[in-house]
Amino acid sequence: MAASWRLGCDSLLLRYFLGFRGRRSLGLAKGAVLLSVGRGASWRWFHSAQWLQGDPIKILMPSLSPTMEQGNIVKWLKKEGEAVSAGDALCEIETDKAVVTLDANDDGILAKIVVEEGAKNIRLGSLIGLIVEEGEDWKHVEIPKDVGSPSPVTKPAVPCPSPEPQIASPVKKEHTAGMLQIRLSPAARNILEKHALNASQGTATGPRGIFTKEDALNLVKLKQMGKITETRAAPAPPSIPTASLPPQATAGPSYPRPMIPPVSTPGQPNAVGTFTEIPASNIRRVIAKRLTESKSTVPHAYATADCDLGAVLKVRQDLVRDDIKVSVNDFIIKAAAITLQQMPGVNVSWDGDGPKQLPSIDISVAVATDKGLITPIIKDAAAKGIQEIANSIKALSKKARDGKLLPEEYQGGSFSISNLGMFGIDEFTAVINPPQACILAVGRFRPVLRLTEDEEGNTKLERHQLITVTMSSDSRVVDDALATRFLESFKANLENPIRLA
């Protein structure tokens, strides 16, 4: 039953008849309120009244990983004015680990995109969009006054003319208007100021044209002999042309590298003495931060062992004949998981106050991507077979390179493995990924000739396929003796693939 209302009452009376209902928010924002009535009522008489417009739902930059401090808007999947249902994908956000889709929690209309796609370094909790209830005037939605601008926001870099001419000109005038600018060592500067001398009265003999302490002492000796008069050169007014410089200024030593290199212009070849600033992704910034923290706060200890892969390569060939494709790295992951199962004292982490025993064996495997290194996790690796591990690694590696890893697929882990053997690296040491206690660095397998004895005691020269593994361990949790025993057990498990079945 349709109804047409003509109201001539104040807002209090209107509230009595209509009532309010709370409305859920999207993501982090709550508390928006909307007026509503029964089905069929016509609101055209006062639809345009501003005081009836409900507060919009705020879409805020969410925290999508434990280490995330800011995010980038990769792409908006909805347009302004488009209907949104709960569960719909709104936009893609690049975190410090991967690209994650932000989903809607409510129905409505996407009224305003506050932060355009391509914007970078958006702080957590910053407003990125607004949603209104269906039926509201989404075209005239206003940004709430209590929400500031999403700062800092870095829009996609656009090549633009370099401001070098405007900046470099006054700098050059400042240097050339008076005397020649000479680079002074701290000791030389103190001596010249004490004796009221000028570096331009002498000759700089230091590397790269630096006026050294010895040069300053020579000037003092010349002054004492009466060959140099005491002087303090006052800065010349800006109106004096460069041609009026004293003769000794042009006779001084030349220093080809500019004191303040101009910034390079995007898209143009670098000039001499300039540099090109490379933008860092969120992933690389987090990697740099965590590596620095790890090397400066975690006492790294290293242990190395050689393992014979002869038996593993034979088993792998038998599996290939049965059309089962597995890699040597899959056997290494399985061997590490079995060894952790045998030695739970290594499957620990440091939580700040002391060691913590981890309940499951989750192996983090380092995968190189265009944006940096990421470590997807093989959950409960000791309970998985070689083929299951191989399939998991292939799927997770592809998702890592595509930036589609889910947070639960790379967060956590109890032990890390980094394999550079496929790049021809014989051996290396890796940095521990806190709060984990260990990481195993694996090199390539290589042929080595060794003398062996048979059962009768006869020696013969045999060819062996060896790999070198180096374990970095947190000495607070895994000491040298425990690390040594772990590598001995790992070597025994890897050299006997039957144990890995």
Offer a quick outline of the entry.
This protein is of the alpha+beta class.
List the topology elements.
Elements: E1 3-4, H1 11-18, E2 20-23, E3 32-35, E4 41-42, E5 57-60, E6 70-76, E7 83-84, E8 89-94, E9 99-103, E10 108-113, E11 122-123, E12 127-132, H2 164-177, E13 183-184, H3 186-194, E14 210-211, H4 213-224, H5 247-250, H6 282-297, E15 300-308, H7 310-321, H8 328-342, E16 348-350, E17 355-357, E18 363-365, E19 367-369, E20 372-374, E21 377-378, H9 386-401, E22 415-419, E23 438-442, E24 446-453, E25 459-474, H10 480-494
Parallel strand pairs: 1-4, 13-14, 18-22, 22-23
Antiparallel strand pairs: 2-3, 5-12, 6-8, 6-11, 7-10, 8-9, 10-12, 15-25, 16-17, 18-21, 19-20, 23-25, 24-25
Helix pairs in contact: 3-4, 8-9, 8-10
